[in-house]
């Protein structure tokens, strides 16, 4: 079936094009960037933009369509050749300059600075194989002091979840008991995070943010290590089988009223990033409001700085500090929640009294 | 993300389990075998069966559930270990014997013969990476003279088609012209057959059978080479962009009334085999009834006998023989079709006259 694969030095590999096809056809991804750019023509008009890791060049073309004066489209791989062709077929050769090199090696004419950096640098769970380091370096080198980053912020969220596709149905699969199969499947998958779709209804508790990355001022060092320790009350009776990880990217508020967010979580439209799941070694049956305590560490790999090691630790809810208020059923948390609720209600009442009689009462 | 993948010698590889999951979850595949076996309990009762390439052992378990006296479940890979566990959890250790070796090396006690061979040996376009050679060798060695093969027959079909996912939409993709992208995508894919889903409505003409393999008597040599030369009239105006290849497997008619067929074509339920498409170097615009002439050669690869080379030749419809009747619009074919239709009608009339007055007329 693969008799003579003609070597194709024009691109890095055949897979490149398939990956770009997957990304282009990811509608939440492509249409969010398009909306962000084309809804902000008033901002982009006559701006100088840099698109880092431009791939096929589609984001650069959106910028040119939005009125950018100049777009530097930087692409390290041989895909830069294709980007040039696509720029040409859209008649933007005057506006878009495709630069075929690493962004770290780019030198702009007269050392000019750019008004905005547009980049789709996100990998699985945001940082996997990520290009964010390169984007940060380029920002420090090329972005004007008051320049804009697209996206501007990125957040990683984590929440406990069930993973029914790896547990259910195998006990009675077409009338056959295949528990050994699902056990080995899970065991194999427990060695590394699994990229898969998780449904909203399979989340077992509120998500917590692992980090909040401000793309305008974060440093490469800040991206080395993240950690969150958390307790959450289960939102229903269920089977706690893994930790679900996803991210959101938030774009600058400019001329549009609406905040534009690319949400890759279970509640959003499915994307090619799916979600990332760390499976527990053993499932745990939890009851509604039962506290689920965990710690997640995400550390850059020592040998390959483009990779991260994810480590999930299961904690004893008795031994760690709970958030305030906490959704769990432990006595202290129930009491604190009740008191805090009272205070909020009191404040609201007081507030409304003040509002009703704003001046005369003083 | 892949920090320390623990080597797992229990299975050949992690991917093994994922591939078996894909196959198990392929409902047309699994439920067709289940139906064939469990609808034929009267046949399977007390039979001795061999399951070649048993994988997880699910087909062997279906046979045991159907009443087989003995099942030899042969698996060359380390998956045999898992099959044993699954057999055990279904309490069929007395019936099913998992044999961990190549079927070519199997020796059965007292050189007994089996009543039936059950096997799911099919690869992409039926023969890719196929295990059919092994099944044929095992049949000659182990199957009783009047034994049954499940499946009993297999047919490869080919039909001209459109491949809109590689052509359409890219001319105006989110407002951007990306023809260069789709051109390179197609060019990359033209080097080898592409496994993908084709819709029924994208077929441009009736399918033709490349072969008809009778599993009860075919030889390994007969599997070396297949060729079909064909002309078909386009069933509508359209864009001829590739040749679509798929297969059907037909199971023995035993105690059930209904012929059970596993159809992997565009008209069937989608399977993990999808369809295989050979792309044309350039699309051709065709009009309804326009003759489409081609030759498809499928030859075993000289170096790797488990692979086949597929070659599509586009032919001049003027220069080759057309089937009779032919669906194309060429004068000769239209005339022949008209004459044949007349003859059929005449024969039908004559027949009905005979039927109405069966004896007196003589």
TrEMBL record, chains A, B:
Keyword Transferase part of the UniProt annotation: yes
Keywords recorded for this protein, A-Z: Methyltransferase, S-adenosyl-L-methionine, Transferase
SUPFAM superfamilies: S-adenosyl-L-methionine-dependent methyltransferases
Domain Protein arginine N-methyltransferase: 153-313
Keyword field contains Transferase: yes
Entries under Pfam families matching the protein: PrmA (PF06325), PRMT_C (PF22528)
Enzyme Commission identifier(s): 2.1.1.319
GO process terms (BP): methylation
EC top class named in words: transferase
GO molecular function: histone methyltransferase activity; protein-arginine omega-N asymmetric methyltransferase activity; protein-arginine omega-N monomethyltransferase activity
Official protein name in the record: type I protein arginine methyltransferase
């Amino acid at each position: 079936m693969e008799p003579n694969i003609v070597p194709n030095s024009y691109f890095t590999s055949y897979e490149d094009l398939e990956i770009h096809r997957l990304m282009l056809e990811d509608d939440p991804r492509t249409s969010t960037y398009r909306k962000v750019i084309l809804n902000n023509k008033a901002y982009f008009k006559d701006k100088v933009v840099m698109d880092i890791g431009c791939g096929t060049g589609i984001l650069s073309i959106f910028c040119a369509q939005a009125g950018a004066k100049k777009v530097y489209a930087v692409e390290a791989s041989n895909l830069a050749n294709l980007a040039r062709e696509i720029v040409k077929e859209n008649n933007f050769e005057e506006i878009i300059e495709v630069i075929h090199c690493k962004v770290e090696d780019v030198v702009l004419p007269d050392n000019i600075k750019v008004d905005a950096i547009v980049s789709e640098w996100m990998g699985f769970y945001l940082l996997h194989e990520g290009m964010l380091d390169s984007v940060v370096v380029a920002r420090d080198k090329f972005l004007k002091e008051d320049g804009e980053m697209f996206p501007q912020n990125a957040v990683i969220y984590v929440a406990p979840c069930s993973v029914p596709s790896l547990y259910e149905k195998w006990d009675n699969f077409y009338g056959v008991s295949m528990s050994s199969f699902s056990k080995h499947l899970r065991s194999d998958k427990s060695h590394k995070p699994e990229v898969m779709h998780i449904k909203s209804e399979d989340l077992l508790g509120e998500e917590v943010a692992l980090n909040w990355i401000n793309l305008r001022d974060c440093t490469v060092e800040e991206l080395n290590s993240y950690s969150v320790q958390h307790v959450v009350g289960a939102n229903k009776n269920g089977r706690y089988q893994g930790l679900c990880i996803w991210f959101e990217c938030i774009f600058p508020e400019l001329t549009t009223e609406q905040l534009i967010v690319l949400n890759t979580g279970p509640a959003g439209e499915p994307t090619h990033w799916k979600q990332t799941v760390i499976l527990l070694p053993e499932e745990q049956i939890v009851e509604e409001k039962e506290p689920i305590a965990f710690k997640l560490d995400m550390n850059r790999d020592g040998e390959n700085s483009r990779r991260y090691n994810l480590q999930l630790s299961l904690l004893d809810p008795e031994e760690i500090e709970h958030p305030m208020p906490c959704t769990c059923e432990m006595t202290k948390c129930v009491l604190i929640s009740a008191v805090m609720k009272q205070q909020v209600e009191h404040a609201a009442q007081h507030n409304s009294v003040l509002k009703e009689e704003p001046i005369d009462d003083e």
